[in-house]
């Protein structure tokens, strides 16, 4: 037996302490994969690992802030120390913010680029060459239906998901014939803490759109990936949203989304310090 054969393949899920990432880890573990759960909160990770073990799966955890410069190297070291290799990478860590781009704190908005774009890209580029060399495995990247259009009042989030879909679909094409798959998953609203934390659930758009369960999204994501799919858009309403976004011109989509994501009590984007309804909102209604 060679040293190499002692190294076991693992499904590495970043953003696995809750939500969609945790649900994908559960699906993979149910199919017999060893899963490595990564997120910042040790308590959330321990709870997620306990659920997986109770269901008969194998899970180990790593508490790590993916925004740290050396996150990819630390994850690699952790895998080596546990005689594991990243066979499948699931990039599910991400966050968003609802509100005017001129009003939301700049650092919080830049953090969306650091996590949703930079960390996802770094991990993908770090682990893909090994997968290609082994001729197996792949990457699941969590995009969103937000990737199909710009999104006023969630500008950074929509733009970050546009990047994720573009990057993932291009990689999928580049890797044709290698037995390695990159799949972008683009759900509409999913009932997780994301909606509350981002403030999205206070916008009319997210009240109108039906919400999916993370378990359903995870099943679609995992089986779509296993079948080599480039893009998975789970659920009818997300498919419809993506279709409408592709059909309607920006001149229609932008004011529509802006209206559905802005709240009249929001601080006015013009910087007056007043509420929107008492400032530019009042002027545009008069
Ligand atoms: N929920 C939706 O409506 C929806 C719709 C479409 C797409 N998505 C996308 O799906 C993905 C998962 O979303 P979700 O709904 O499952 O969100 P969630 O419930 O808020 O989970 C986010 C996960 O990311 C981890 N995370 C956040 N910041 C991190 C950091 N700096 N380093 C390491 N881990 C970090 C969180 O754990 P810790 O806080 O412990 O670090 C948590 O495990 C995101 O990319 C999101 O944009 C969500």
From TrEMBL:
InterPro entries: NAD(P)-bd_dom_sf (IPR036291), SDR_fam (IPR002347), SEC_C_motif (IPR004027)
Domain of life where this protein originates: Bacteria
Identification of the protein by name: SDR family NAD(P)-dependent oxidoreductase
Coiled coil: none
Lineage: Bacteria, Pseudomonadati, Pseudomonadota, Alphaproteobacteria, Hyphomicrobiales
Family (UniProt): Belongs to the short-chain dehydrogenases/reductases (SDR) family.
Keyword tags: Oxidoreductase
């Amino acid at each position: 037996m060679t040293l190499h054969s002692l190294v076991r393949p693992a499904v590495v899920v970043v953003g696995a302490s809750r939500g969609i990432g945790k649900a994908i880890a559960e699906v993979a573990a149910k199919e017999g994969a060893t899963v490595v759960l990564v997120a910042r909160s040790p308590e959330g990770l321990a709870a997620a690992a306990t659920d997986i073990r109770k269901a008969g799966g194998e899970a180990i955890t790593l508490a790590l802030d993916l925004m740290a410069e050396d996150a990819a190297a630390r994850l690699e070291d952790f895998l080596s120390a546990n005689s594991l290799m990243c066979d499948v990478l699931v990039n599910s860590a991400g966050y968003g913010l609802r509100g005017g781009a001129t009003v939301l704190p700049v650092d919080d908005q830049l953090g969306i680029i650091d996590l949703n774009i930079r960390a996802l890209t770094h991990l993908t580029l770090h682990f893909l060459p090994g997968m290609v060399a082994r001729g197996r495995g792949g990457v699941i990247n969590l995009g969103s239906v937000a990737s199909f259009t710009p999104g006023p009042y969630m500008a950074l989030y929509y733009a970050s998901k546009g990047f994720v879909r573009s990057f993932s679909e291009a990689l999928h094409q580049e890797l044709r014939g290698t037995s390695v798959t990159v799949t972008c998953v683009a759900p509409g609203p999913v009932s997780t803490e994301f909606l509350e934390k981002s403030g999205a659930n206070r916008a009319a758009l997210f009240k109108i759109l039906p919400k999916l369960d993370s378990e359903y999204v995870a099943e679609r994501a995992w089986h779509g990936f296993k079948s080599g799919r480039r893009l998975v858009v789970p659920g009818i309403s997300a498919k419809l949203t993506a279709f409408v976004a592709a059909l309607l011109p920006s001149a229609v989509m932008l004011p529509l989304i802006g209206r559905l994501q802005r709240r009249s009590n929001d601080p006015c984007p013009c910087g007056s310090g007043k509420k929107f309804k008492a400032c530019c909102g009042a002027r545009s209604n008069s």
